[in-house]
Design goal:
The complex is a heterodimer of chains A (263) and B (195).
Chain A (H helix, E strand, L loop, with lengths): L2 H15 L7 H61 L8 H14 L3 H21 L6 H24 L2 H28 L5 H15 L40 H5 L7
Helix pairs in contact in A: 4-5, 4-6, 5-7, 6-7
Chain B lengths: L8 H12 L3 H23 L2 H20 L8 H23 L3 H5 L8 H18 L3 H12 L4 H8 L3 H31 L1
Helix pairs in contact in B: 1-2, 2-3, 2-4, 3-4, 4-8, 6-9, 7-9, 8-9
The chains are: A mainly alpha (263), B mainly alpha (195).
C-alpha cells in the first residue's frame, strides 16, 4: 500500500467514526429548554439592571435638579442680598437690607463683633444720608438719619452690657468711628437743604455724644443719673436740657430759626 | 452524522449579533444549528454519549454567560463554539486520566455474535477508533473538525488558536499516522489469523 492509498484509507476510516449514536432526544430537548430558560433569565436580569440604572439615573437627576435649585435659590438670595446692601430708603429692597442687618446682629455673639457690626451699619446709614442729600430725597434722608441715630443707641446699649475689661477698648473704637461720622455729617449739613437740618443736627448730636462716651438720647431707662451729671445723655422728654453741639457746630435751635416752615 | 448547516458569514454574523442581544429566536436557531455537531465532535473524542451531551450543553451555557457579560464572539461563531467544545473535551480527558475510566469501551456498539456482518462492522469501527485514539489530541481535533465537521482551515486555526500552516501540517501528519496505525493493526490481525 503506497502513501496515497494509506491517506485515502485513513480518510475513509474517519468517515466510519461519524457513525456515532445520535444524542438522546430527551436530553437534547432538556438542554435546549435549559438554554432558553437561562437566556430568558438573563434577559430579565438585563432589563432589571437597565431599570435599576434608569432608577439610579433618576435619583441622580433628581438630586442634581434639587442641588441646582438650591444653588440657584442661594445665588438669587445672595444676589438679592447683595443688591439690598446698596439699597437706600425708598427702595424696595431697603427693608430687606435692614432685616439682613438684624439677622447678622442676632448671629453675632461677642460684644466686639456687635460693636463692629453696629459701627459698620451706622457707616452704611451715613453713606445713605450722603447719597440722599438733595431736596428731592429729603424725606428719605430723614429716614436714614433716624436709622443712624437708632444704630448709635443700640451701640450704646451693647457697650453698657459689655464686660468692664472690654468696655474701654470698645468705647475707644466707637469714639474713633463716630468722630469721623461727625465730620462727614457736618459736610453733609453744609450742602443739605434747610429742611434736612433738624434731622442732621440730631444725628450730629448723637455722634458727638457717642464720641464723647455717652449714649443715644432715646434711652431714658439707661440714663439713671441726672442730666447735669451726664451732659451727653438726656431723655427725649427733656429737650430743653439737652446741651447744644460743641463749638463750631450749629445747634438745632439755631437751625430752626432758618427753617420756619419746618415743625 | 449530520454535517453543520451551511451559514453564510453574513447570516451567521447576523444571527450572532441578534444572539448577543439575547434574542430568543436567534438563540434557538444557534442551538438547533450547532448542538448536534458539537455533540458528535465531543463524542468522537470521548466515546461517551451522556458526557458528550452534557459538554455540548455546557458549550451553550458558556456562550450565554459570555454574551450576557458583553464578551464572547463578535464574529465567526462556529470556530468559537468548537474552541469551547475542544477545551471542555481536553479538560474531560484530563479528568478521565485521573479516574482511569475507559468510557469508550463501555459505549461502543456492542458486538452481536449472531450477526456476522454487524460484528465485523463493530470490529472495524473499534479498530478505526483505536487508531484514531493513538493520534495526538491536536491531530485528532484537526482531523475531526476538517473531515467530520467540514470546518475550513481558517476556522480550525481559530478554534485551536494556531496558524493555518500548522493546521495543514497537523492534518497531513494526522492522516499519515492514522493510515499507518490502521495498516499496523491490519498486519497484526493477519498474523493473529495465521496463528
Amino acid at each position: 500500500m503506497n502513501e496515497q492509498e494509506r491517506l485515502d484509507r485513513a480518510k475513509n476510516a474517519l468517515e466510519r467514526l461519524s457513525s456515532a449514536p445520535a444524542p438522546d432526544p430527551l436530553r437534547e430537548a432538556s438542554a435546549r429548554r435549559r438554554f432558553l430558560e437561562q437566556a430568558a433569565r438573563l434577559r430579565t436580569g438585563v432589563r432589571a439592571a437597565r431599570q435599576t440604572n434608569r432608577g439610579r439615573l433618576t435619583i441622580w437627576l433628581r438630586g442634581g435638579i434639587a442641588i441646582s435649585l438650591i444653588v440657584l435659590a442661594l445665588g438669587a438670595m445672595t444676589g438679592v442680598a447683595s443688591a439690598a446692601d446698596y439699597a437706600v430708603p425708598g427702595d424696595l429692597l431697603y427693608p430687606l437690607d435692614l432685616s439682613i442687618e438684624e439677622l447678622r446682629l442676632s448671629l453675632a455673639r461677642h460684644p466686639e463683633d456687635l460693636v463692629a457690626l453696629l459701627l459698620a451699619f451706622a457707616d452704611e446709614r451715613l453713606q445713605e444720608v450722603e447719597q440722599l442729600n438733595s431736596p428731592e430725597t429729603e424725606q428719605q434722608m430723614e429716614i436714614a438719619l433716624e436709622a443712624y441715630e437708632q444704630t448709635l443707641i443700640d451701640l450704646a446699649l451693647v457697650l453698657d452690657s459689655a464686660e468692664e475689661t472690654d468696655q474701654q477698648a470698645l468705647t475707644e473704637m466707637r469714639a474713633q468711628a463716630l468722630s469721623v461720622h461727625e465730620q462727614r455729617l457736618l459736610v453733609v449739613r453744609q450742602e443739605a437743604p434747610e429742611q434736612a437740618w433738624p434731622g442732621l443736627d440730631r444725628a450730629i448730636e448723637a455722634s458727638q455724644k457717642g464720641r464723647d462716651g455717652g449714649r443715644g438720647n432715646n434711652d431714658p431707662e439707661k440714663t439713671p443719673g441726672p442730666p447735669e451729671d451726664k451732659p451727653g445723655n438726656s431723655s427725649p422728654g427733656q429737650p430743653e436740657k439737652t446741651p447744644g453741639p460743641p463749638e463750631g457746630v450749629p445747634n438745632e435751635s439755631s437751625h430752626k430759626t432758618k427753617t420756619p416752615g419746618k415743625p | 452524522m449530520p454535517r453543520n448547516r451551511d451559514h453564510s458569514p453574513l447570516d451567521e454574523n447576523d444571527l450572532l449579533q441578534r444572539a448577543r442581544r439575547l434574542d430568543e429566536a436567534a438563540l434557538s436557531a444557534i442551538f438547533d444549528a450547532y448542538y448536534r455537531p458539537l455533540y458528535f465532535y465531543l463524542y468522537t473524542h470521548l466515546g461517551h454519549g451522556p458526557t458528550a451531551e452534557d459538554l455540548a450543553a455546557d458549550v451553550f451555557k458558556i456562550f450565554l454567560e459570555q454574551v450576557s457579560a458583553k464578551r464572547g464572539p463578535t464574529q465567526m461563531l462556529r470556530p468559537w463554539l468548537y474552541q469551547v467544545a475542544h477545551n471542555l473535551m481536553v479538560d474531560e480527558l484530563r479528568r478521565r486520566k485521573h479516574r482511569e475510566h475507559d468510557l469508550l469501551d463501555e459505549n461502543l456498539p456492542a458486538k452481536a455474535p449472531e450477526l456476522n456482518d454487524q460484528a465485523q462492522e463493530a470490529d472495524e469501527l473499534q479498530a478505526v477508533s483505536n487508531a484514531f485514539k493513538r493520534l495526538s489530541i491536536k491531530q485528532q481535533a484537526v482531523l475531526n473538525m476538517k473531515f467530520l465537521h467540514g470546518l475550513t482551515n481558517e476556522e480550525i486555526a481559530r478554534a485551536l488558536k494556531m496558524a493555518e500552516g500548522t493546521v495543514r501540517a497537523l492534518q497531513l501528519r494526522g492522516l499519515r499516522a492514522l493510515g499507518r496505525h490502521l495498516q499496523q493493526d491490519d498486519n497484526l490481525y493477519r498474523e493473529m489469523d495465521k496463528k
